[in-house]
Amino acid sequence: MSVPRTFDQLVEHQVRRWEVERRSSTSVVPAPCVALSRQAGAGGASIGRLVAKTLDYGFFGIEIVDHIAREARIRRELVAGLDEHVRSAIDRFVIDSFNSRTFTETDYLRKLVEIVTTLGERGRTVVLGRGSTVILPPERALRVLAVAPVELRRERWMKDQGVSADEAVSRLARMDEDRLHFLRHHFGVDPDDPLLYDLVVNTGTIQLEDAADLVIKCLARRFPGSSGSKGVGARKPGGRPAPNST
């Protein structure tokens, strides 16, 4: 399949994945997904893209999830095809989350929770950031945190973004603070609490490709009977992370 280039194409591509799986799968267990959080510069995006490429999962980064949450037409396309029971379960989850004050109430956040929950329920996706590791339950997602020493994160950011050491330090600190504020304010959690995750990978000591392999193997072990994890456990030959490893 060709690589999607726009938000619309990405969603269309993902909907086709779900339709192919629905027609071909004999498993009663829905495909899982990967929810991935990361420190800036720790390589989380590259790990996510590698996992998605190997498993033929959709990759939904922060900008994509934000765009979908604000675009009603695209949200409808993602939800289309869900049976009424699943759709009702998603609606109840969103309502219960806000009624219990688990999440703070904003129109944007309600849409965000709905989108991430829908992606998790339908499966075959890697969702990067935006509270996905908090929103999605362990029954539907492998929740992963990518970390690295600050010195290595700074070096990667300097190389990937072409900035000075001082600028890299400043921008990483700002991104770390933004991430902490977003998750504490909206979800009431410390994003670096390891107990929020099923797997924590330190890319200061583990290569990005090996980290992606670990994610894939853990996914297969966690969801052995699902259609989306059958036959996985090794990276396809030639797999490499995207140039931007942040």
Care to describe what's here?
It is built from ten helices and five strands. By secondary structure, it is α/β, with parallel strands linked by helices. It has a single domain, classed as Rossmann fold. A five-stranded parallel beta sheet has the order 2-3-1-4-5, with helices on both faces. Helix 8 packs across helix 9. The radius of gyration is 17 Å and the shape is globular.
Quick summary of this structure?
The protein is of the alpha/beta class. The chain is built from 10 helices and 5 strands.
Radius of gyration: 17 Å
CATH superfamily: P-loop containing nucleotide triphosphate hydrolases
Q: Percentage of helical residues?
A: 40-55%
Principal-axes shape call: globular
Q: What's the number of helices?
A: 10
Order of helices and strands: HEHEHHHHEHEHHEH
Proportion of residues in β-strands: 5-15%
**Termini distance?**
26 Å
Kindly report the CATH topology. Answer: Rossmann fold
Residue-averaged pLDDT: 78
State the low-pLDDT regions, or none: 233-245
Number of domains: 1
List keywords for this structure.
single chain, 246 residues, alpha/beta, Rossmann fold, five-stranded parallel beta sheet, 10 helices, 5 strands
Write the topology of this structure.
Blueprint: H1 7-24, E1 33-38, H2 44-55, E2 58-60, H3 62-70, H4 72-79, H5 84-99, H6 107-122, E3 125-128, H7 132-135, E4 141-147, H8 150-161, H9 165-187, E5 199-202, H10 208-222
Helix pairs in contact: 2-10, 3-6, 5-6, 8-9
